[in-house]
Design goal:
There is one protein chain. With 225 residues, this protein is mostly beta strands. The chain folds into 2 domains: 166 residues, no CATH class; 49 residues, no CATH class. Helix content is 13%, strand content 42%. It contains 4 helices and 15 strands. A 5-stranded mixed β-barrel has the order 7-8-11-15-14. Strands 4-3-2-5 form a 4-stranded antiparallel β-sheet, with no helix packed on it. It is globular and about 55 Å long. It starts with a strand and ends with a strand.
Length: 225
Amino acid sequence: MKLFRGLEAHQRRGLPLLLVVGAIMVSGFVLAGCGGGTETTTSTAVDSTTASTTTTTAVTGISDTTTVSSGTTTSEAETTTTTEALSNAEILQPDGTIKAMGFIDKVWESGGKRYISIDFAQMLSGEEARQAAIEDGFIGPDEYLDNDYYIVNDNPRKREFTVADSAPITTATFGGGMDEPVTWQQFKSFWSESPPEGGQHLRDMPWWIVRDGTEVISVAEQYLP
């Protein structure tokens, strides 16, 4: 389990103690339920006059159905169903992509493709964060968190994804600004044996990824106050 107490964690890293606009943090605080998942069913039914394709996507009770008809043809009926269960650290977004925060432990290339390995974690705030910290014994019942957030990692499972060549990568504590863009080569160097000056701590920071299926389409460092 990885647990962070805001002030102490960043004194050890030597990071500046800055106030962060609440909106930066809020996106990480809404977490999908443990039982969440997506189910997509595609079926094709054809008679002798009209081909009709119906795609139905169901997500925790919300459905969206689209029907497209084409010209006259004849073929056999076919049905394909795929299901993906999300972890409680993942967020299903309206466009169907999946967002999650975690700790990246490996970045590499193989066979002309880019890869990362990430261990998902949850970032809590407010009273939820305080209660989680109390339950873990991190603080006492009468204590409060210094910076009002608490990161919990109860599941050590690491997941591997490919990274799109076009995926934007931004940092919050490297290069002098928030949402600072870096190249893939710079990003990969943070996990090398000789990380660049000022980038040694980035392998220990949490990162947000957005993925479309098994391909990551954006990567962004989460700033910690």
